Amino acid sequence: MYENYPFWFTFFDQLRFRVELSPRSSKKIYELGIETMPSESVCYPAKLVHGHIMSLVNKKVNFIFYPCLPYEMLEDEGADNHYNCPIVTSYPEVIKNNMDVLHTNEIKFFKPFLPYDNKEKLKTRLYEVLGKEFNISKAEIEIAVDKAWTEDENAKRDIRQKGEETLKYLRDTGKKGIVLAGRPYHVDPEINHGIPQIIASHGFAVFTEDSIAHLGSVERPLRVVDQWKYHSRLYAAANVVNEYPELEMIQLNSFGCGLDAVTTDQVQEILNSNDNIYTVLKIDEGNNLGAARIRIRSLVAALEERDRKVKKHHQQHSKYEKVVFTEEMRKKHTILAPQMSPIHFQFVEAAFKTSGYNIAVLQGVDNAAVEDGLKYVNNDACYPTIIVVGQIIHALKSGQYDLDNTSVLITQTGGGCRATNYIGFLRKALSEAGMKQIPVISLNALGMDSHPGFKISLKLLDLAFKGLVYGDLLMRVLYRVRPYEKVAGSANELYKKWAKHCMVSISENKIGSFKKDIKCIVKEFDALELNNLIKPKVGLVGEILVKFHPDANNNVVDVIENEGAEAVMPDLIDFFLYCSYDANFKYKNLSGSFKSLVINNSIIAGIEWYRRYLKKYLRKSKRFEAPHSIYHLANSASEILSLGNQTGEGWFLTAEMIELIKSGARNIVCMQPFACLPNHVTGKGMIKELRRRYPETNIVAVDYDPGASEVNQLNRIKLMMSVAFKNLKGGTDKKESIELNEVKVQA
Question: How far apart are CA 619 and CA 444, in angstroms?
Fold first, then answer.
């Protein structure tokens, strides 16, 4: 609305639609939609959307257009990417699946994923979306897009001109201004709670970040990955504040905005490099501005004090200097890597060592490691960030490693989730802990943040994927039989035997051992002596680290098994397949290239080639099921939400829940870090629709966070389990037992 309205108004007006707006945001609007909100921890701007949609329904509007825009128009050529935040990208999916009124009032609710960053592809997509439905020709769509594009440019130019005029006025009069920076929706008076007026009452001119960002440029490289458009604008605006002594900056941060854990630290670093004062105001639906008024008065006093002491600001450089991992370092450095999934990463560690890297995958995460994470990471960052960084810092502080001969390895997906910026959080933590000399190596498939001493060889890829297949297979067969073992501990003993054997297989890398190992693993777990019991199956899904790391999820698999159920954990490899599959949707509906399409589908074929023996022998087994293809999962998910939901676990999370339900695991624990933005949409946001389509489904969403109550988590899981046992006894659960003879129900 506040960024793209000139475009959309002009577009629809040109096509002879009457454009109807919802009323201005207010508490009344907020309360209109409060009953339809699936997550209490999502940001206030997202919560307001429910009320705005309801107000349009009450106005009898029969066509509501709420597009999903993964990318904004490119504004800074030097930025690493130009994503929208996950909520802006995908929240229309939450609205569709949680507001029943949209299904009952014969309202046309359009939520297409659009390539807003590519004018020509945008024309094609808008014709596909609107042409047939409203009998509009492609020529009409093209003319409307061209006019809308021009109007959008004109509107942005007007804002910039006003910023320049006001800045000139300040210089001419000797007055000062404050850049009140945030996101476009922070212009909304209901969201900013009148803070611009409070600032103006102190005699400051108030600028939005987009009114002056064009006057400066970002000094690169930054410590963080600059991948969100509005963040790029913030960084540019902060540099402008450094260049103009008339300007200061206050950043608005909506509670629950996880992305601002990235921006706030980076903006502060830019401003502090020039001795400017950084102020951030955290706001939500509460309108008690006492704290904000105090912070603003304190800023005014601090500015007056500073200006009395400092007559002239000296511009300094804020560019981040990366520590490079060299070829020489490869020969003598120990490389530390954070743990994510113990079952899988033991084999990945062996693959790296066999490929010539002295890597050490860190093991458990204790309270001391979490405390180190909280100490060195912005506490608005997600729980996985705190765990990953805390684990590494804690290990480096232990005295076990020579800090001058140690490096750190961390993964990057390159997607729109905060996970891509773990590397930025880690570099900041290392610097603050006095260990800035330690290189941080990025493990990714996109060529980001390259180092001359680190190369992903074909041998490493081969061994790593074999290791992941071993991990998925052992996890699958172990969790399937352990709850039913006749001899206590026998399943774990068999697992340990084969884990050790597979480690040797990766280290020796003998031809033919991979196929033989898989066949024997399935055979021996198929023959393990078991009790004939029926137990409820409980599927485990969620954010990837919280799902697989037992210390992050408080040993949820053990909890489920101790409660008398069977835990069903989807494969880790499927996440990599999901990431590759996304290129299909991007090519068809967004700005993806044909080259990317071919490469990623080739990757899928390659990964499935590694899984061919796993699938073959699981299908032949008595007890186990083979995983479905990613194409099958995508087809299932597309019935409920768009495959354009690609941030974090994206549509894949919903697909996993559907697959679990269809396979008999109708009880599901959906695990997410507190305030995980993608999971607001594809996790919590889809639960209502899943229950509607599959009435027997029993899903509980559990948040994990350093401050979360483990007792509360356990109680929520136990409540879900009580329903699972009730359903099992009542006959609504799928009654499957292993080697079914005489059957008992264990409760």
Answer: 33
pLDDT band at 430 (very low <50, low <70, confident <90, very high): very high
CA distances 165 to 161, 181, 296, 320, Å, are 6, 18, 25, 33
What lies within 8 Å, CB to CB, of 401 at 6+ separation is: 334, 336, 395
pLDDT at 313 over 90: no
Query: pLDDT tens digits, residue range 466-523?
Result: 999 999 999 999 999 999 999 999 999 999 999 999 999 999 998 899 999 999 999 9
How would you label 439-471 residue by residue, b for 16+ Cβ within 10 Å and e otherwise?
Answer: bbbbbbbeebbebebbeeeeebebbbbbbbbbb
The arithmetic mean of pLDDT across residues 381-402, rounded, is: 94
Contact status, residue 332 vs residue 438, Cβ threshold 8 Å: no
CA distance 619 to 51: 50
Handedness of CA 617, 621, 624, 626 (dihedral sign): positive
Q: How far apart are CA 552 and CA 268, in angstroms?
A: 30
| Bond from prior residue into 221 cis (ω within 30 degrees of 0) | yes
Quote the pLDDT of residue 733.
Answer: 47
Q: Tell me, letter by letter, the H, E, C secondary structure of 224-256.
A: CCCCEHHHHHHHHHHHHHHHCCCEEEEEEEECC
**φ and ψ at 598, to 5 degrees?**
-65, -45
Distance between CA atoms of residues 437 and 452, nearest Å: 17
SS3 category, 361: strand
- DSSP secondary structure string for all residues of 691-738: HHHSTT-EEEEEEE-TTS-HHHHHHHHHHHHHHHHHHHHHT-S----T
| Rg of the chain over all Cα atoms, to the nearest angstrom | 27
Query: Nearest-CA neighbor of 130 among 57, 53, 62, 65?
Result: 65
Residue 572 has pLDDT above 80, yes or no: yes
Is 711 within 8 Å of 554 (Cβ atoms)?
no
Cα–Cα distance measured from residue 407 to residue 384, given in angstroms and rounded to the nearest whole number: 20
82: its two tokens: 């130009």
Query: Which residues are bridge partners to 533 per DSSP?
Result: 744
Q: What is the pTM of this model?
A: 0.91
> CA 441, CA 653: separation in Å to the nearest integer?
28
Q: Side chain identity at 428, as an amino acid letter? A: K
Of the pLDDT bands very low, low, confident and very high (cuts 50, 70, 90), residue 289 is: confident
Alpha helices in 276-382 (DSSP H): 290-309, 327-332, 342-354, 367-376
Q: Write the pLDDT tens digit of every residue in 189-210.
A: 998 899 999 999 999 999 999 9
Q: How far is CA 217 from the centre of its chain?
A: 27
Q: Are strands 440-443 and 63-65 parallel, antiparallel or unpaired?
A: unpaired
3-state SS, one letter per residue, for 474-543: HHHHHHHHHHHECCCCHHHHHHHHHHHHHHHHHHHCCCCHHHHHHHHHHHHHHCCCECCEECCEEEEEEC
Instruction: Report which DSSP code applies to 259.
Output: T
Cα gap 233→239, rounded to integer Å: 10
- For residues 250 and 200, give the distance between their C-alpha atoms in angstroms, rounded to a whole number: 13
